[in-house]
Design a protein that fits this description.
The chain is of the alpha/beta class. It contains 20 helices and 14 strands. It is globular.
């Protein structure tokens, strides 16, 4: 089986390579994902190893409370955290302050996977959300290393894709010891794909348990005045910056203290967004170039081109607009601004966060609009009426409290396996 999958994966990688180069997603981490210098990076340790995997930025933030709990409860183990993207790698180094061993995840070739397992020697593999690799999971299973899926979810698109390769999906799922799923729908879907029902549990969403560290950011540090009202558009995708600039151009005349912060989902697009702002006649300031020069105007649009600071910036916002909900599919995570009690607006495309949207729409803190015009009108109302801005925020905080506890439940599942 391995040789056939290796050939298939190799062909797929060759076909995918031009896309990576075209999208400028190729990076040095790909060579490290081939196990090059893995021994030097991972080092040696007499401690048993818990291998935790988080794909990128969102997953790294999600597993912070879980990793801290593992460190406290199983101090005799070392933790190795693997990621896929450079942004995830950078954030992991920052969040864990070099206290964990951070590596790039292996490419799913049999010889690469063997090398990783020989070097890391994990006693358990814990993967955040949903990323299933046939070779890796098969080798883990054959070496009797238990696999735990934490904060598991199966999106609409993923469910369709996995159904298309149902025989392979069932084989991979059979390798997993415990599925800790976010919701009953996710549990039903993973069972429908072939998971053993006795191994599937609904634990809740780990994102509710994450508490962001205190921030030192202030409006003045960002180059704004204290009385300025900040609108932050977070994790935007192409086309959404244009929407925000159109709205900002119109609302800026009505609200002179209004200021705009644009945080593209992929920071590599920052220069593109700067040029877009300048083409519209706006002043643009990149976050990496702070503090601003003395002659910098306070009405400059701030472009966030650094990883890991967006959550902190949300604490300064008057209103937040979530990206990939107007241009794109699935949406981006809207929990961070809601945690700070910020009125949060989303477009019609929130499929990947259906449960969160359902929970917070009823509080009034999360507002769903269908298009740019409705977005502008709702923003105008919120800016004009402080009472409407505050409506629903208490209820949102209560919902946060009510849905916490996934970390404790997940830890019990992991402990039950490690104590065997």
């Amino acid at each position: 089986m391995f040789i056939f999958y290796d050939i298939f994966f190799f062909i797929t990688a060759l076909v995918y390579l031009p896309y990576l180069l075209w999208k400028r997603k190729w990076h040095g981490g790909f060579w490290r994902r081939c196990a090059i210098s893995l021994g030097a990076v991972a080092g040696s340790s007499t401690k048993k190893t818990i291998w935790v995997h988080a794909v990128s930025v969102g997953e790294v933030l999600t597993i912070v409370p879980l990793v801290e709990s593992i460190r406290q409860r199983f101090a005799e183990y070392r933790i190795v955290l693997s990621v896929v993207t450079p942004t995830g790698y950078e954030l992991a180094q920052k969040r864990f302050n070099n206290t964990l061993t951070i590596v790039y995840a292996p490419l799913d070739f049999s010889w690469v996977v063997r090398r990783y397992l020989d070097v890391l020697k994990p006693v358990i593999y814990i993967s955040a959300e949903t990323e299933w690799w046939p070779n890796l999971y098969a080798f883990l299973y054959h070496r009797r290393i238990p696999i735990v899926q934490v904060n598991g979810r199966v999106s609409d698109r993923a469910f369709q894709r996995y159904q298309f390769i149902a025989p392979l999906t069932r084989k991979v799922l059979a390798c997993i010891r415990l599925f800790c799923m976010q919701s009953a729908l996710d549990a039903d879907r993973v069972i429908g794909l072939g998971a053993d029902v006795s191994r599937v549990r609904v634990m809740g969403n780990l994102k509710f348990d994450y508490t962001p560290p205190s921030t030192s950011f202030t409006k003045e540090i960002l180059g704004f005045d204290t009385q300025d009202q900040l609108i932050i558009a977070g994790s935007t995708h192409p086309g959404e910056e244009q929407i925000m600039l159109d709205i900002y151009a119109r609302l800026g005349n009505e609200f002179p203290s209004l200021r705009l912060v644009l945080a593209p989902r992929h920071v590599g697009r920052s220069d593109e967004v700067v040029r877009l702002c300048q083409a519209r006649g706006f002043c643009a300031q990149k976050f990496s170039e702070l503090p601003p020069t003395q002659d910098q105007r306070s009405d400059c649009i701030l472009i966030v081109d650094r990883i890991g600071c967006l959550n902190d910036l949300y604490s300064l916002a008057e209103l937040v607009v979530i990206g990939k909900t107007f241009c794109g599919r699935g949406g981006q995570n809207m929990l961070e601004p809601l945690r700070y009690c910020k009125p949060t607006l989303v477009g019609p495309h929130t499929e990947n966060f259906r449960d969160i949207v359902r929970i917070f729409l009823k509080t009034g803190a999360l507002i769903e609009v269908k298009d740019k015009e409705e977005l502008m009108n709702r923003m105008r109302r919120l800016l004009s009426d402080p009472k409407e801005r505050l409506a629903g925020l208490t209820a949102a905080q209560e919902e946060f409290t009510r849905h916490q506890g996934a970390t404790v439940k997940t830890m019990e599942g992991i402990a039950g396996i490690l104590n065997i």
